[in-house]
Amino acid sequence: MGKYLISQEIGSFRKPKYLSTVFHKIYGTEEYYRLSEKATDETIELLSHAGLDNIGVGGEMFRWEMYEHQANRIDGIKFYGPVRSFDNRYYKKGSIVDDLSIKESFHSDELEYLLSRDYDNIKIPVTGPYTMMDWSFNEHYRDRYETAMAFASLLNGEIKTLKRLWDSKYPGRKLEIQLDEPATTTHPDEMDMVVDSLNKSVEGIDNCEFTIHVCYSTDYRLLYDVMNDIKIDGLNLEFANRDKLEPGTSDSARPGYEDLKYFQQLNTRKKFIGLGVTDVHIDYIEPVQLIKDRINYTLNIMPPDLVRVNPDCGLRTRSIEIGYEKLKNMDIARKEILKEIK
Description:
By secondary structure, the chain is of the alpha/beta class. It has helices spanning 17-20, 23-26, 30-49, 66-71, 108-116, 129-134, 144-169, 191-202, 221-224, 260-266, 288-299, 320-341; strands at 74-84, 90-102, 124-127, 137-138, 175-180, 208-214, 234-237, 272-276, 307-310. 39% of the residues lie in helices and 16% in strands. It has a 6-stranded parallel sheet with strand order 3-5-6-7-8-9. A 3-stranded mixed sheet has the order 1-2-4. Helix 5 (108-116) runs parallel beside helix 7 and helix 11 (288-299) crosses helix 12. The longest helix is centred in the middle third of the chain and has 26 residues, at 144-169. It is globular, with a radius of gyration of 19 Å.
């Protein structure tokens, strides 16, 4: 029964103040690595105590932001200044001024540390090619398609590097890679670009579990329509943010999850869903019963072996205490359901 309703961390978690307050000042120094490693261990301990099966990379303590971290390590990108993202956070938006090439591996330092500590229930989030393209200015490539494919070629090389590291520690075991693609459905006429760039990113890489994570969308049906063409194993998606806070398992009670009927109708290749059951944009700690209702509503649509549970997105914008309580209730809910469906 353990293969059902796997609970997973989806990305970032709130950094402790001893790291967040000095992050940019010490980035790349010995102190940066020491504090990032310390924060990673503390976060993994907290995630494990909350009951998660999959601890991700321990809350992305080595990274400040999903776009900036990778762009900083790419040649051919010039930074002009910060732009504002959601929740009044800022990141440096880059402009592509030359052919893109990898200056240094995006996440090898992070993975090397995790492997040195014998962590094995991990998943590595990598910002996907379409989002890297969409969030960059372009002063070099012919068009958006060529730009997305250039990023895809870089990501393909990066994932191969990470896979070699993983195989050196755990030969024969699958490495889980999550391609973060929040921009996926923002341009409905570019879904072919999403498909081609994601497929290029994973081309020629065996014995990996590939998922994509989309944490905002006006219409998931755009993604569902092409998901069988993407060479991935699952979709980790936001649902709680668009749902009601009242209990119940009817369609009217669970509007945030109703489009899963459309997903299941089209899911010919049996991709799993990472089900967002807690909202990362509010401090309200969803009660266990509400989370159970969200999961049970989904189980009335699709079988439990195709369902995992997770927060909608990374919890970095919530306090450590609130993030922990949300994850703990999520784990209690799924364990209660596992007992009920035995």
